[in-house]
């Protein structure tokens, strides 16, 4: 019997959860605290009341569904490696900072990263397995 798959879900998967084929996701999933931060900012980034409510619902759903993995010392050390790999790939090291912090969380926890935006993680393939969904 195959071992259950595990993985870290990028914020893009949470945002598009109603459009993601659940069969392409890991059996056991986690999210990063950085993703919760992005989701917490979401309601404040729109002026439309209905969209603000939808984003608030998404934040509450994610917070109730997962205990987010923290951005801790191990993730901070991993961020250095992620930053270096990003620069080596010819991309600005601080571009898409939240994505890089999420990738560092995946690296420090030994988890593949499931995302709807694989191109945001280009150049990190030697450090983190990026799984497009």
How does this structure look, described?
The protein is an alpha/beta fold and 133 residues long. It is built from 5 helices and 4 strands; from the N terminus they run βαβααααββ. A 4-stranded parallel beta sheet has the order 2-1-3-4. The protein is globular.
Quick recap:
With 133 residues, the chain is α/β, with parallel strands linked by helices. It is 44% helix and 11% strand.
The main β sheet shows up as: 4 strands, parallel
Task: Report strand %.
Answer: 5-15%
Q: If helices are DSSP runs of H or I spanning 4 or more residues, what is the number of helices?
A: 5
Radius of gyration: 15 Å
Coarse structural class: alpha/beta
Major beta sheet, strand line-up: 2-1-3-4
Cα separation of the termini: 24 Å
Total beta-strand segments: 4
What level of helicity do the residues show? 40-55%
> What is the overall pLDDT average?
95
Low-confidence stretches at least 5 residues in length (pLDDT < 50)?
Answer: none
Q: Please state the overall shape, judged from the principal axes of the Cα atoms.
A: globular
Which sequence of SSEs, written as H and E, runs from N to C? EHEHHHHEE
